[in-house]
Prior knowledge:
Number of helices: 5
Mean pLDDT: 88
CATH topology of the domain at 25-75 and 91-101 and 113-173: Hypothetical Protein Ta1238, Chain: A
Low-confidence stretches: none
Strand content: 5-15%
Helix content: 55-70%
Amino acid sequence: xxxxxYTKTGDEGETGLFGGKRLPKSHIRIDAYGTVxxxxxxxxxxxxxxxxxxxxxxxxxIQDRLFTIGSNLxxxxxxxxxxPDIKPEDxxxxxxxxxxxxxxxxxxxxxxxxxGHPSVSTCHxxxxxxxxxxxxxxxxxxQEWVEPIIIxxxxxxxDYLFVLARQIADxxxxxxxxxxxxxxxx
Length: 186
């Protein structure tokens, strides 16, 4: 018999954490790991648009780390469970990659608007979803224990996605559009 994806246990508006604890689907913990899952899907879309093999490989690594974060957030915080972890080296990898990309990009002198190519826009959408995931995890951490490195990783990842959007624009020859604020009184 094939594995069935549906369990019917969530039909009453609750879901289970790893470890058995049940929570309402509206709980901030569920919102946090659901948003991390949404982010992972967008990263997959960015990876699909990317032709650079090294970037595709790093995006796959990032997706693996996001699954790690999701498994941490989806685990009962009251039970000692063995789950994969995020390491300082994961953050360092993002920082090194940002430094490498920034060294090859023109200096950023203005705020830029998302757009120019679907791959650039998707990268910016991923960045925004990452920031939302970070905000939700911070809010969760104000109520329950969350590994601080998870927040750090999400923070750095959103920075990485901004720089990656700029690199993709550069690789595709897409001109960055500077934000032109309206002058007061006009």
